[in-house]
Amino acid sequence: MVSATERLEEVKADIRSSETVYGSKEGAVTLIAVSKTYDADVIRPVLAAGQRIFGENRVQEAMGKWPALREEFDGIELHLIGPLQSNKAKEAVATFDVIQTIDRPKIARALKAEMDRQGRDLPCFIQVNTGEEAQKAGIAPRDVDAFVKDCREEVGLNIVGLMCIPPVDEAPGEHFALLQKVAGRNGLNQLSMGMSSDYKTAIGFGATCVRVGSAIFGARDYA
Questions:
Q1: Is-contact 176 199, C-beta < 8 A?
Q2: Other C-beta atoms within 10 Å of 191: how many?
Q3: Closest Cα to residue 82, out of 134, 35, 114, 49?
Q4: Distance between CA atoms of residues 129 and 87, nearest Å
Q5: Which pLDDT does position 219 carry in this prediction?
Q6: Tell me: the pLDDT tens digits for 126-138?
Q7: What are the Cα distances from residue 51, in Å, to 38, 93, 106, 155?
Q8: How does pLDDT run across 172-200, given as a tens digit for each residue?
Q9: Residue 212 to residue 191: CA distance in whole angstroms
Q10: 122: how many CB neighbours lie within 10 A of its CB?
């Protein structure tokens, strides 16, 4: 059976190869190992292999496993890549190093208030609902420009980029291209896009962060 550390090396090799194919600078793409649903014993070997940047979907789950892992391993950077409720803003700011899923004014203001209280200035991404799916979080593409401006100028957040999750039944490339275009016109140079099934395609459209979970850790058990 292939181990998580072996799969990690395969993903890293794929990323380096894709950087070459698409003319990106070596090291331009950051691998975020998505550790949601995996417990500390599964994550630990990947940490031991040198991976330090991880993504979690749920604040409570992250709070349950990452404080102990941070005591064991230095240099961990934790990204919130799942939806956030405003009543979890305090815990999110205390637990995460990067927030990738700002999707409405209430969350933006709640996070800024908590950052000020805790003395933190976290890099933030705005989640864009490129497919305008009713069941999915994110700002509609047509509303991104105004929302970026509000988050920067009115709220005072450190907005560094955009993220998206394309519809599962559509070709991801058109959604990555849209995110790249919207980011460009807003002066944002970080794009979080691409997951286990499509991260190589995302690199071709300028992804600077790819969020890869099952291709590293194996199939998830949601039971």
A1: no
A2: 26
A3: 35
A4: 22
A5: 81
A6: 999 999 999 999 9
A7: 15, 22, 33, 33
A8: 999 999 999 999 999 999 999 999 999 99
A9: 14
A10: 20
Burial tier of 160 (Cβ tally within 10 Å: 0-12, 13-18, 19+): middle
d(CA 88, CA 13): 36
**CB distance 201 to 179 below 8 Å:** no
Q: 15 is written with which tokens? A: 């990323």
User: What 3 state SS string does the chain have?
Assistant: CCCHHHHHHHHHHHHHHHHHHCCCCCCCCEEEEECCCCCHHHHHHHHHCCCCEEEECCHHHHHHHHHHHHHHCCCCEEEECCCCCHHHHHHHHHHCCEEEEECCHHHHHHHHHHHHHHCCCCEEEEEECCCCCCCCCCECHHHHHHHHHHHHHHHCCEEEEEEECCCCCCCHHHHHHHHHHHHHHCCCCEEECCCCCCHHHHHHCCCCEEEECHHHHCCCCCC
Check the CA dihedral 8-14-16-18 and report its sign: negative
The number of residues making up the chain comes to 223
Structure tokens at 75: 């240099």
